[in-house]
Design brief:
Length: about 375
């Protein structure tokens, strides 16, 4: 596979360094003393140190010492594929799913997830490449996942949506009360904290990205999905992540007619970790097309279109009248047992979910006021 050689070297180097870098302790606990502690460049973020070692290993000198001549390694933006899961890791939606996301959960297709929590009890991630035109309390909100999205995106039919709302906020601000580091250069905070910082004049709304909902995994669940190839794990510096978020925001705001679907962000990160070939496998595939339809249906409208809802209601009323005539029952009466019902799609009904009902024929085997 094109680019696989680079990826395998980076992955191997990252794997060989995971135990060593983990044993060095957290950045706050690390020491650069001459008594065997890690070098000074570990201080700040161990991932920076690991990225520099990987860079040197690819240059043929896997060492913590500076290259010959004393020239320091350039602190350029970096991203590499790894096997290490930790807070701040980036998950890239893979292309090895058995059925893909064309028929359900289209928002996971070619998604980019930043893990904001990863411990022995739970893993929590936020999808960062699904911008929307929906607003909440005057703030533009993006889809963060299908768990506790509060029905903001009218996607609450599933087991996770509903009325519960969990809001995650990411920012590239360097300092501020109430900010919690995710990875060097990226922090998280509560929605209330973001509002307070803006009200105090310490920040602007454009300094934050607000996400409704999240993606969650219980212990062992994500590991099983990784084994199936559902995800690729990457590490990226905070500057790169903020740059991608800024690019996604600019793309979302550039065209008032067509909302960005986030695929460009995924493609950019895939290429940066050496997965150029995979990134070019499926442009304009069925999965891509279904994602486009899902974005148009769920994320593009600033709010629920009252006119569209009225048209939808009229269409359903006409369909119900036709069904009653076909079944021979009067308005208000239950459909008679033995009646034949024909699946009638309105808008995106039976397209994004429950496709088995598209152009279906159903025989009523029981009918009452309660069923």
């Amino acid at each position: 596979v094109g680019g696989a050689g680079v990826v395998s070297r980076s992955t191997t180097a990252a794997g060989s360094l995971e135990a060593a870098s983990s044993s060095a302790g957290t950045p706050e606990e690390s020491s650069s003393s001459s008594s065997g502690g890690p070098p000074a460049e570990v201080i700040g973020d161990v991932r920076d140190f690991r990225a520099r070692l990987i860079s040197r290993s690819e240059a043929g000198c896997l060492t913590t010492a500076e290259p010959e001549g004393g020239q320091a390694v350039s602190a350029e933006p970096w991203a590499y594929e790894t096997t290490l899961l930790e807070k701040g890791s980036v998950l890239l939606g893979g292309l090895s799913q058995e059925f893909g996301f064309a028929l359900r959960q289209q928002y996971f297709h070619k998604c980019v997830v930043v893990l904001v929590q990863h411990d022995a009890h739970f893993t929590k991630g936020v999808i960062v490449n699904r911008p929307s035109r929906r607003t909440l309390d005057g703030w533009t909100v993006w889809l963060g996942g299908d768990v506790c999205d509060g029905g903001v995106f009218a996607s609450g039919r599933g087991p996770h949506g509903g009325k519960r709302l969990d809001i995650e906020v990411l920012t590239g601000l360097e300092r501020g009360e109430g900010l919690e580091p995710v990875v060097k250069g990226v922090k998280r905070c509560s929605f209330e904290t973001a509002k307070r910082l803006v009200a105090e004049g310490a920040a602007r709304q454009s300094d934050f990205w607000v996400f409704c909902g999240y993606a969650g995994w219980v212990p062992g669940q994500l590991a099983a999905e990784l084994e199936k190839g559902s995800w690729l794990v990457a590490a990226a510096d905070g500057g790169s992540l903020v740059k991608e978020l800024l690019a996604a925001r600019a793309a979302a705001e550039a065209d008032a007619g067509k909302l960005d679907d986030g695929v460009a962000t995924w493609t950019s990160l895939m290429r940066r970790i050496g997965r150029t070939s995979e990134a070019s496998w499926t442009p304009h595939s069925l999965d891509d097309d279904m994602l486009r339809i899902w974005v148009d249906a769920r994320l593009s409208q600033p709010k629920l279109d009252a006119g569209a809802l009225a048209r939808n209601a009229r269409e359903r009323k006409r369909a119900d009248e036709a069904m009653r005539k076909l079944a021979g029952n009067k308005p208000g009466e239950p459909v008679a047992r033995g009646a034949l019902l024909a699946g009638h799609a309105v808008g995106t009904d039976f397209l994004l979910e429950r496709q088995f009902l598209h152009k279906s024929l159903c025989v009523v085997v029981a009918s009452s006021e309660d069923v």
